[in-house]
Amino acid sequence: MEKVRVIGAGFAGCEAAWQLASRGIEVELCEMKPVKFSPAHSNEDLAELVCSNSFKAMRLESAAGMMKAEMKLMGSLCMECAEKTAVPAGGALAVDRDRFSALVTERITSNSKITLIRQEVTAVPDGPAIIAAGPLASEALSESIREICTGCLSFYDAAAPIITAESVDYDKAFMQSRYDRGEPDDYINCPLDKEEYEEFYQALITAESAPVHDFDRRKDVYEGCMPIEVMASRGHDTIRFGPMKPAGLVDPATGKRPWANLQLRKENTQGTMYNLVGFQTNLKFGEQKRVFSMIPALRNAEFVRYGVMHRNTFIDSPRNLNDDFSFRGRENLFFAGQITGVEGYMESAMSGILAGINAANRLTGKEKFVPPETTISGALARYVSDETVKNFQPMGAAFGLLPPLPEKIRDKSLRYKALSQRGLEDLDKMIN
Q1: SS3 call for 196
Q2: Which residues contact 244 (CB under 8 A, 6 or more apart)?
Q3: Could you report the per-residue pLDDT of 163-211, keeping only the tens digit for each?
Q4: Burial letters 304-342, b for 16+ CB under 10 A, else e
Q5: 373 phi, psi to nearest 5 deg
Q6: Exposed, middle or buried: residue 9 (CB in 10 Å: 0-12, 13-18, 19+)?
Q7: What are phi and psi for residue 341, nearest 5 degrees?
Q8: 93, 88, 285: which is closest to 188 by C-alpha?
C-alpha cells in the first residue's frame, strides 16, 4: 500500500497523520520547522499555538463544545492531549501551550507508522497526500497550491499579548468568571470606570500600528480575530460591548458592574502568565506597552509576548473541495486545516481528522466518511464544499450551520443542548 504524505504538522496535519496511522497506513509527516519558520511560529514542536491558548467552550450547549465531543468520538489526538494539559478557564478548554505541543510531538514521534520529516515541501506532491500547511504555507508551496486551485484568498489575522501574573496590580483587579461560570480564579478582571475608559479609548485609536509585511489593508482583517484597535475605530463603545464588555461581572470594590472590563486568562498550568482576552493587536510593541498599561490593573504589566499580526491564506474551497475534503479532479489529494476555510484550532483539527479518515478510506477502497449534517463536523464539511456559497469566508463552529429541530424550543440553552444530543447520537450511530 502506498504511503501518504501529510504536508504540515499543525493541528490538522497531526490529526490527519494520526488517523492514517491508526488505520495501519504509513505516513510521511513533513514539517518545515525548524529549517524554516513562518512569521508567526517560533516553537520547534508540532501543533504550535500561535494565538489564544483557549479552544473555546466545553459545554454541550455551545457549538464549540458539541464539536469537541464529536472529535472525541472520532478518536481525536488533539482532544486527548488538550485534556491532559488543560489549565483552568471557566467553562472553556484552555491549555498550557508548551506542554500541549510537546505532548502532541511525543505522541506523533513515538508512532511507528509515522515518519516525521523536517524539511520544507515546495510543491504539491503527485502521489497520495494531504495538504495541511496551515494559513501560513511557505511562498513556494502557496504558489504551487494556487496553480492547481481556482485562486487563493487572504486576510490578516492577529494575536493577543501575554503578560506575567505577578506584574498585575491586584488592588485594581478582581477574580471572577463571567456569570460565575467555572472557578472564581479562572480569570483576572481589570475594570475601568468611565473616565479611565475614555482615556484608554483615545490612546488606543490614536496609537501607531506596526507595518504589515506586504501592505496594510484593514479591510482584509478577518472579523473573528480583529485587532482591538481596528475594532475600536468602528465606534466609541464597540469594544465596550465586545472584548471589554462588563456583563456578568461585579467589581467587589464598588459593588457594581464596571463601566468596561478587560479579562486575563491563564496561559500555563502554573498560572504565571496571562493572555489579554480579545486584545489581538497590530500596534507597535512600544505602543502596546504604553496603551495597555493605561488600564489600572496593568500599570506595571510585564509583557512576555507582544501581540503580532500576520497574513493567512485559504483556498476557495467551494470551488475546489468535496465534502470529504478531497480535491476535485485529484482523488488522492486532500486538504485540511485553516487553508480550507475552517476557522479555529479545533475546527482545523476536526478537518484533519476527516481528511485522514477519508484518505485512508480512499486507499483501502472504503466509502467516504462525512459526519451527518446534524453534527458541527458534518455541517462544516458541507459548508466549505458548498458550491452555492459565492462570497466564501472562514467559518467556525456555529449552531446556525445545523438543520433546525423538528420541534420548537424557545429556551436557547435547551435548544442548543437538544441540537447537540441529536448530532452526537447520529454520529455515534454512524460510527458504531
Answers
A1: helix
A2: 192, 197, 260, 261, 262, 278
A3: 999 899 999 999 998 887 777 777 999 999 999 999 999 999 999 988 7
A4: bebbbbbbbbbbbbbebbbbbbbbeeeebbbbbbbbbbb
A5: -65, -15
A6: buried
A7: 100, 10
A8: 88
Domain ranges of the chain: 4-157+312-431, 162-307
Question: Cell for 375?
Answer: 453534527
What is the C-alpha separation between 65 and 149, in angstroms, rounded? 33
Looking at the DSSP bridge assignments, the partners of residue 223 are none
Q: In sequence order, what are the beta bridge partners of 131?
A: 7, 335
The grid coordinates listed for 180 are 460565575
Please determine whether the domains at 4-157+312-431 and 162-307 fall in the same fold group of CATH: no
Which residues partner with 164 through β-bridges?
273
Using alpha carbons only, give the angle 24, 357, 347 rounded to the nearest 5 degrees.
Answer: 135
- In 193-329, the DSSP E strands lie at 260-266, 273-276, 303-305, 309-315, 326-327
Chain position carrying cell 500541549: 100
Q: Copy the grid coordinates of residue 262.
A: 478587560
Rounded-to-integer distance, Cα 123 and Cα 136, Å: 15
* Beta carbons of 399 and 416 less than 8 angstroms apart: yes
Question: Which CATH number does 4-157+312-431 carry?
Answer: 3.50.50.60
Place 158 in a pLDDT band, splitting at 50, 70 and 90.
confident
What's the grid cell of residue 133? Answer: 500547511
Q: Which residues contact 379 (CB under 8 A, 6 or more apart)?
A: 373, 401, 402
At the top level of CATH, which class does the domain 162-307 belong to? Answer: mainly beta
Phi, psi of 270 (to 5 degrees): -70, -15
Residues 385/322, Cβ–Cβ less than 8 Å: yes
Place of cell 456569570: 179
pLDDT in tens, 296-347: 999 999 998 888 877 677 899 999 999 999 999 998 999 999 999 998 899 9
Asked whether 212 and 149 are in contact (CB, 8 A), the reply is no
349 CB-side CA count, 13 A: 28
Q: Which residues contact 139 (CB under 8 A, 6 or more apart)?
A: none
Query: Residue 217: its pLDDT value, please?
Result: 47
